[in-house]
Write a structure and sequence with these properties.
10-stranded mixed β-sheet, 7 helices, alpha/beta
Length: 415
Amino acid sequence: MRQVQRLIEELNKKAKEAQFKQAPYGPDLDLSAFFLPPEREAVDSLEELGEEVVSRALEVGIETREERRAGTYFQLDRAPIYKKMQEFYKGKLEMMSSEEALRKYDWMVDYWWKAIPVDTDKYTATAQLLQTHGYFLRALPGERIETPVQACLFISEDRAMQSVHNVVIVEEGGELNVLTGCTISPKVRSGIHIGISEFYVKRGATLIFTMIHNWGEEFEVRPRTVVVLEEGATFVSNYILLRPVKSLQAYPTAILRGEGARVTFNSIIYGRGKSLIDMGSRIILEAPHTRGESIARSIGSDESKLYMRGQLVGRANETKGHLDCRGILLSPKALIEAIPELVAEKAPLSDLSHEAAIGPIAEEAVEYLMARGVKRDEAISIITRGFLSLKMPGLPKFLEREIDRALQLTTAEAL
């Protein structure tokens, strides 16, 4: 514990020096406008949370019956109130709050703030100085946890701050499928979610991570994510944002340190209202024969502004990366800016490419559907939904159906 205590002291010192450091992207925020809500009491069942919370959780893929989940972590505001793992997975999977893991395991010092520097910006600094738990998930060596583990980060208080630090470790030869749903109570208008996530995918392991966000028109979101992959590891990220948000700024990074590692980022972004979204992914290919792909689909409607970034960095030969960023602008008051970036560093045999396109909905496609009796608004909704319907590898069929249903409801509601 002395080693952990020394680490915390060092991290706090660095964080205090960076607590006013502005992030390079996205609007700067005054964090003093938000408060830390009180601790909540634990519950024995998700049904005890009440219909309002349960219905919101369902919208982001969180199952209250848990029949198709290996385990459930539910955090309400600043603390976990429900943690349960199916009996079958005990001894194969570990699940607890990240603060609990730091107290339990001395070796956590090898992972805690090792992928993400604590002084990256004011948001990482705040997550260290004012941490409100977060989840710790670990698939043990050789264990294939194909049934999803679900984690919900829920905010119930107006103007609340939730600053979580998540750590996920998939040990050598293991496999883990994680579904995270982040959302707020209907009574919440403003607030901020700061989510620090450090993922470690060991040799020959696989992590499939799906995140569904459902925020509000006055809500601020600042995720910070770094994934470290060893030899032969695979990481698949699926990100979905279909509801308005005041501002969201995220630039998740995957570092492929082991030969033959692979990563795929898939994202579906629907900009609505006056949302300001600065989103992207960065893939750093540090070892030979690594592969990376980033696929983004975005819709700009109303007065939303979307900045869609993507960066591929080739630092070793025999590496390959591709960016595919496409957007549709539905409103004359909306903005989409695609910002692809390719960087080859002393790696002449690195193969990097990108494809970016922004355009309108094809009028001939709308007229085609209208000629078959479909109303214009419905035709636009169908085309939009088809554009956003990415095939995301690794998703269970039932989750694909849930996402398709959410897309259908969202596009119909928006139009």
